[in-house]
Amino acid sequence: MPPYERHFFVCVNERPAKHRRGCCASKNGEEIRARLKLMLQKSGLAWKVRINSAGCLDECERGVAIVVYPEGVWYGGVTLDDVEELFENHVVNGRPVERLRISNDETRES
Asked: Is the confidence at residue 20, as pLDDT, over 60?
């Protein structure tokens, strides 16, 4: 099997309630990942795109965090309402969703 064209890692990390940094699990990380995977399966593109769960991506305050390789695109603050736009734009058409993007200058400042 040839390598995937694009690989999405969706943070589903869980921290204790009231942790100062928060966590992606409490912001629907698992549901976002599951919805993206379902859309991928229905689209017939699962042979070229992979969507996985990730542990902590160290962008907790900006969760739900997603990183996409090989582009190295980081997303933050992703909600269930963003999934369809993210899927259509980046998964299907390879175009990042700029409004959700964390710039390189912003990543891992915490």
From this structure: yes
